[in-house]
Amino acid sequence: MIVTTNDLFRHAYGNYAVGAYNINNLEQTVGLFRGNLGKSKSNEEAVNKATSAPFIIQISRGARGYTDKRFLEGMIRNAEVVFPEAIFAVHLDHGTEETCYDCIESGFYSSVMIDASHELLAKNIEITRRVVERAHAQGIVVEAELGQLGGVEEDVVGSVCLTEPDEAVEFVEKSGCDSLAVAIGTSHGAYKFSGKQGLHFDVLEKIQKALPARFPLVMHGSSSVPKDWVDRINAAGGALKNASGVDEKQYLPAAKMGVCKVNIDTDGRLVWCAIHREYFRDKPEDFDLRGPGKVFMPAYADYIVHKNTMLGSAGQLEGVRASLGK
Ligand code: G3H
Ligand code: 13P
Ligand code: ZN
C-alpha cells in the first residue's frame, strides 16, 4: 500500500526513523521489499512481524534517467502486488522544480523532494512554495532542504553550511513544506567524516525546539558505510580508501529529536558491489548475471532488516497499519 511520507512520520515521530532507500534496479527493489517484510535468508516466504517495517522508496533523477522512469514505476507497482503487506511511500529524491512537477503529474509518487538548497533563502522559499502548491493540490507531500550537506568537514564546522534554526522557522512557515531536510554534519557518499566528527546534536536540538511541535525532520547522507562491507570490497579487488559513514548508534538519538526519515543509498551500493566482486572473483568461469543476483537479493534483504533495527522501524509495520486504520 502506497501512503505519503507524512502518513509514516505521524506514527514514527519522536520514537524511531523510517528508512528511505534509493533504488535503481529490480534486484534492489526485490531485496528492499523482502527486507522490509522481515523475509530473511533462512525464511524468504513468511512475513516476520517482529522485524517488518514501514519504509520509503526513493527515486533520484539519476535513477529515473538510468533507463526509462516508467520501468521504475512498473517494478514498484508490481512489487506492491507481489508484497501486499508492505506499507511504503514513493518519493522523488533531490528533485528540481521541473522533475517535481513531472512526478506530481504522474499520479505515482506520494511525496517529492524539492532541493533548492543551493539557492539563497528567499529564492529557496519561493521555489519550494510553488512546488508545495502544485503538490498539495494533488494530495502529495513535499520535503524541502535548508543548509548544505556537502563540504561540511571537521575544520569548517560552524560554517554557514549547517542549517540555521532561525532560518528553518522562517523557511517552514513561508514555504509550507511538510518536512525539512537539515544539514547537521552528514554528507553524501562513502567518505563522510574526518577524525571523530559526528552529528551535530546541538544544532538538531535547536532546530527541533524552534520549529512547530512534531514537525518532521530528514537526515540525508546517513549511510553508515560499514567497515565489514568496505573491507569485503577491497579484499575482492576494490580500492575504497578511508571510507567512513554515520555511526548507526546515532540514528535513534536523532529520531528522538524529530528526525523521521533517514536517507540511505551508499550502503546499498556497497552491499551490491561486495557481492558482485566476490561472486565473479570466486567463480571466474561464470558469466550468468542471475548468479550474483541470487546472492545479492537475500543479502540486501538481511542488510535492510539490520538497518531497520538500528533505525527503530523494525517491528513497527503493524502499528503503522493500525494508525492508518487499514
Ligand atoms: O543523494 C543522492 C543519492 O545518493 C542519489 O544518487 O543521483 O547517483 O542516483 P544518484
Ligand atoms: P548516502 O550517500 O549517505 O547513502 O545518502 C543518501 C541520500 O541522502 C539520498 O538522498
Ligand atoms: Zn540526499
Could you please describe the fold and organization of this structure?
This protein is α/β, with parallel strands linked by helices. Mean pLDDT is 95; it is low at 151-160. The protein has one domain (5-226, 245-266, 301-324): TIM Barrel, CATH 3.20.20.70. Helix 5 (97-106) packs parallel to helix 6 (121-136) and helix 9 runs parallel beside helix 11 (266-282). Strands 1-2-3-4-5-6-7-8 form an eight-stranded parallel beta barrel, surrounded by six helices. It has helices at 5-12, 26-36, 61-66, 69-82, 97-106, 121-136, 165-175, 201-210, 227-235, 251-256, 266-282, 290-311, 317-323; strands at residues 18-22, 55-60, 88-95, 111-114, 141-146, 179-182, 217-219, 259-264. It binds glyceraldehyde-3-phosphate, 1,3-dihydroxyacetonephosphate (13P) and zinc ion. Zinc ion binds next to loops.
DSSP helix fraction: 40-55%
Number of E strands: 8
Coarse morphology: globular
From N to C, what is the helix and strand string? Answer: HEHEHHEHEHEHEHEHHEHHH
CATH architecture: Alpha-Beta Barrel
CATH class: Alpha Beta
CATH domain topology = TIM Barrel
Extract low-pLDDT stretches.
151-160
Question: What ligands are attached or bound here?
Answer: glyceraldehyde-3-phosphate, 1,3-dihydroxyacetonephosphate, zinc ion
Give the overall pLDDT as a whole number: 95
User: Order of strands across the widest beta sheet?
Assistant: 1-2-3-4-5-6-7-8
Q: Helix/strand-derived class?
A: alpha/beta
Beta percentage is: 5-15%
